[in-house]
Amino acid sequence: MRMSQLFTKTSKTAPSDEMAKNAQLLIQAGYVHKTMAGVYSYTPLGLRVLENIKRIVREEMNAIDSQELIMSSLQRKELWTETGRWSDELVDVWFKSHLQDGTEVGFGWTHEEPIIELLRNYLKSYKDLPISVYQFQNKLRNELRAKSGIMRGREFIMKDMYSVHATREDLDVYYEAVIAAYKRCYDRLGIDQDTYVTFASGGAFTKFSHEFQTICEAGEDYVYLHRGKNIAVNEEVIDDAIVELGVDRSELEKVKTAEVGNIFNFGTQKSEEMKLVFTGEDGQQHYAYMGSYGIGITRVMGVIVEKFADEKGLVWTENIAPFKLQLVAIGERGGELANQLYGTLMKAGVEVLYDDRAERPGVKFADAELMGMPWRVTISDRGIDSGEFELTSRQTGETVTKSYDELVAFFID
Ligand code: ATP
Ligand code: MG
């Protein structure tokens, strides 16, 4: 992508109406546009990051035999009255509206009830089980406070997955497989070091649900950690958990975290409420066992910004960066050689953001730092004379010099 063609522009200052660092930087660098508090649009740069996060999550969900689908945002009221969750007292984030004929509809804040209704159509026999399905979907929630930028949206992207099983044992095995898959996701997303499987409030059939909590100052949760024993407990269940886990409160360290994922074991509770049944080997009707598993895609993006950005701007890891490198051309001959390098790398499938604008070097370098690609390559007249070009790591700020051929080899191998 040539920067001269990129319609978004960086701005010199952070937006004044935005308190969260993640949104400030993403807006300033041209990755997102704020529509209103808690509602953001993603520009081509922002979309590339989201798609990279989704690709990782998609690969890991496919690897545990889940099948991707996409469900509607508009939902029928009747589904929710089956479980009592149409109630605004029980669910305080509902956006609701009505059709022209007066029929009430809700905007999906989760798809637990709708997925059961969908699966009821297909589930007949134990031979149809297990089933696991997932989607990347825009959830709509009328959140009271939306002050954490893209980490708490009123509209946000969630990966939600649902699994259905014939037996409790089968669900338990799958639940563990999901935990392992989630760990692989956070590992590939670069936040595994600081992400903990955390005991949190219930589960219908289990005492606790499990959250994936990432240590992050900008988060909204508090977690008690035992790093040695690798135990993490959400503040909300700390008293229960201490008893259950046999640890002493004084051994635990209180840390600020962001919830990047959440998984629930529903047992047969939801199936009983909504009559999700199948014929067993014994010829009898049985309620299915169900689990529900979420990852906050846009929240993860915000957490990554918060954790890795520095005073100069965004810092992306290679796995999710929109482009692998920002190629900066300086001078006339520099421009010609940069054109050539851009063509070579593009042909090899390397993602390059090519700063071909007629701007001063200082402006280009500052933008490269703000936009945060893992590598910056500078092709200047001076470099051509010396035969050495600068390769700068955004993460460490270190610069090494390489010949033209070495640069090509660095990115293509
Ligand atoms: P929270 O406790 O942060 O309000 P939740 O428990 O209501 O979240 P879930 O319904 O479990 O969230 O949703 C699954 C995942 O979606 C969460 O783990 C989180 O990563 C993400 N998520 C939830 N609400 C939001 C939001 N308003 N904006 C962005 N991501 C969110
Ligand atoms: Mg949660």
Features:
binds magnesium ion; 413 residues; BirA Bifunctional Protein, domain 2; alpha+beta; 21 strands; five-stranded mixed β-barrel; Rossmann fold; binds adenosine-5'-triphosphate; five-stranded mixed β-sheet; 2 domains; 12 helices
Descriptive report:
- The chain has twelve helices and 21 strands.
- With 413 residues, it is of the alpha+beta class.
- The chain is elongated, with a radius of gyration of 24 Å.
- The structure holds adenosine-5'-triphosphate and magnesium ion.
- Adenosine-5'-triphosphate is lined by residues 110, 141, 143, 152-153, 156, 158, 259-262, 294, 296, 298-299.
- This is Proline--tRNA ligase.
- Residues 38-322 form the Aminoacyl-transfer RNA synthetases class-II family profile domain.
